[in-house]
Design a protein that fits this description.
The chain is built from 15 helices and four strands. The chain is mostly helical. The protein folds into two domains: 274 residues, Fic-like fold (Orthogonal Bundle); 62 residues, Winged helix-like DNA-binding domain superfamily/Winged helix DNA-binding domain (Arc Repressor Mutant, subunit A), CATH 1.10.10.10.
Length: 359
């Protein structure tokens, strides 16, 4: 069976780009704490937006979907699930809320991971929720010509409980020793978790929930305000490529987790940059600015198309109704132009012109 020894990570030399990513994220973490103290009320709206986006994106990666309207209603508990997909979406919502509210009291142990998995699938009524897999699962890849090949065969069911036990023990030992930066340790743990693939279903979603949990426990709270899952969903091809590169030679302990570490750090840093952009918009517009001023400032800084939903997400101090009213006024004033109709509606700055390709 594969052994897990994270002490060796402290002795490794990492590529310059990874060292730089870690340093930049440390700097962002310091500024994050300041922003949270200064603007707690405005950031509350970012939290609610991020929760919805995280739930939507993490499930979408697995092909579990519903409409944006239904997603918001389910999150606000204004409706009940109408399908198996919506049952699983509600389960993710519940576990995400548990992690947001209780991350300091969820140790990285098999029993707790099983309980989170149970809650993830409980609403869907799946009997294997909260239990390790009882059948072998494989990670397949569908090639462009339609053929399916097995890319990786995870740990067999009979070895899974012990593998997860060893994995959690290795993480807790390494974290307690404090010789390895958490930003290195977390992606290595997640990569190993995915190679074990301990459940019949829900492994990808659990890996993303555990990523958030571990980041929160180490003071990296950006996932509360900006959806890490959405950033992964937007770059999922690179996500799968990084995993594929990091699991080669895994059973022999010869795999190199560097590609997955690099990818994870890029995702975290991208979320911090977006977080600071949104907080910066709050600072520029000032607390005394009207909703119109705030929305106008956003549109003046925006290049290309944007939707009302994007404006709502980037202007957390403004309600949705005020955003829509401000956009209407900006259209009437000739500052922006409204394009499309219905769900396809978007806006562009009036001073921009569509560039048409030459004949």
């Amino acid at each position: 069976m594969r052994t897990f020894d994270y002490t060796q990570l402290a002795e490794r030399s990492w590529p310059t780009d990874i060292v730089n990513f870690v340093a930049k994220i440390h700097e962002c973490k310091g500024r994050q704490d300041l922003f949270v103290r200064q603007k707690p009320t405005e950031l509350d709206r970012l939290v609610e937006i991020a929760k919805i986006q995280s739930t939507e994106a993490s499930n979408k990666i697995e092909g579990i979907v519903t409409t944006s309207t239904r997603m918001k209603q389910l999150f606000a508990e204004k409706t009940t699930p109408r399908s198996r997909d919506e049952d699983e979406i509600v389960g993710y919502r519940d576990v995400l809320n548990t992690i947001h509210e209780n991350y300091g009291y969820i140790p990285i142990r098999p029993s707790y991971i099983l309980q989170l998995h149970r809650d993830l699938l409980k609403k869907a009524g799946l009997s294997f929720g909260g239990h390790f897999k009882n059948v072998q699962n494989v990670i397949n890849e569908t090639r462009p010509d339609g053929t399916v090949v097995t890319r990786f065969t995870p740990v067999p069911p009979y070895d899974t409980p012990e593998a997860v036990e060893r994995l959690c023990h290795a993480y807790e030992q390494a974290a307690a020793a404090e010789k390895i930066d958490a930003l290195i340790l977390i992606p290595v743990f997640i990569c190993d978790f995915l190679c074990i693939h301990p459940f019949n279903d829900g492994n990808g979603r659990m890996s993303r929930l555990l990523t958030l949990l571990l980041l929160y426990q180490n003071g990296y709270d950006v996932g509360k305000y900006i959806s890490i899952e959405k950033q992964i969903e937007k770059t999922k091809d690179r996500y799968y490529e990084a995993l594929a590169a990091a699991d080669a030679g895994w059973y022999e302990g010869k795999n190199d987790p560097t590609p997955f570490i690099r990818y994870t750090l890029q995702v975290i840093l991208a979320c911090y940059i977006e977080f600071e952009d949104r907080v910066g918009l709050m600072a520029k517009t000032g607390q005394r600015s009207t909703a119109y001023d705030i929305v106008k400032h956003y549109t003046e800084e925006k290049i290309g198309k944007f939707t009302s939903a994007e404006v709502v997400a980037h202007c957390p101090s403004v309600s949705r109704s005020s955003v829509l009213a401000a956009l209407k006024k900006l259209v009437e004033a000739g500052e922006i132009e409204k394009k499309g109709a219905g769900r396809g509606t978007f806006y562009v700055r009036a001073d921009s012109e569509a560039i048409r390709p030459a004949d």
